[in-house]
Amino acid sequence: MARLSVVILNWNGRRHLERYLPSVVQHTRGEAEVVVADNGSTDDSLAWLAENYPQVRVIALDANYGFAGGYNRALTYIDSEYCLLLNSDVEVTEGWWQPLVKMLDREPDVVAVAPKILADKARDSFEYAGASGGFIDYLGYPFCRGRILSAVERDCGQYDDAREIFWGSGAALCCRRAVFLEVGGFDESFFAHMEEIDLQWRMQLAGWRIMVEPKAVVYHLGGGTLPASSRKVYLNHRNNLAMLYKCASPMQRAVVAVVRPLTDMAEALAHLVTLHPHRAWAVVRAWGSFIAWHRKLGRQRREVKRLKKVRNIYRFSIIVRYLFGGRRFNRMM
Fold first, then answer.
1. Which domains does the chain have, with CATH numbers?
2. What is the pTM of this model?
3. In 153-260, at which residue ranges do the beta strands (DSSP E only) sit?
4. If we measure between CA atoms, which residue out of 120, 314, 103 comes closest to residue 214?
5. Which of 118, 226, 294, 331 falls 20 to 30 Å from 219 in CA-CA distance?
6. 10-residue averages of pLDDT along the chain (333 residues)
7. Cβ-count burial of 258 within 10 angstroms (0-12 exposed, 13-18 middle, 19+ buried)?
């Protein structure tokens, strides 16, 4: 049995598998196996895998369960101690997974470790979705070492220290499989977006720590810098509000309840001014869905284990700091 399973979730992604899977297979050897969990693809992904990479283990799911549901189901078919969740559009490097496993072996209270994530198309710069470890501010807005809102930094080695973080990107995240399942995995009602931050917040409340290990490097194509679709805007806002309601302290929830309607209204107005009415409506719909979820979220909140006070929440507004010149992480924390 492999100690580590590298699990790639695929949905109609043969072109990404052709481009990125070769590096994963080449650089994942020894105590690690490569697994592709297929989310009910309707293209020829499975046939292509069988013909070109018969050594890759395939878990064929019967439908598209989204990022959250797909991984939840896939990890129940795996027996490895550690699972490394990897997007299908990630290129890896020689020895990429060993520092992550070493960190988990060395630190028994660490549940998940993220690598340094650089941009596939601008390899001297951090990638938007994860960079060198993630944090959130008091209103729930995520940011990273190397990316504050839309400002992405060049990688000059300024964030090459391993340190505790609040979240690691789901694009590449190594975790203890048993704990992933024990805390309930990803929230499947999220479908996509914010599910990895929600999961890692619950893990921290249960007493675990999250780390980044920049000795491990990957290159992610990603989509964080692409124009936001109304669907993406809707899911990001809805899921972020749901996550805050489930996981935040009473004081943080009170601040969010007062301030977030104002900031989200401002964002909706900005979408209208820039002639994107569908995105403005997506923000409004997100609030409607969040309010409709209140009873269910209340039950989920009561089920969250709260054994430890969570650190690494920036106790101010990242938007305010960004607007007044704090566009680098080392000016923030």
1. 4-220 (3.90.550.10), 230-331 (no CATH)
2. 0.94
3. 163-165, 172-176, 209-220
4. 103
5. 331
6. 93 95 94 95 95 96 93 96 97 96 97 97 94 96 93 95 97 98 96 93 97 98 66 94 97 96 95 94 97 94 90 90 76 60
7. exposed
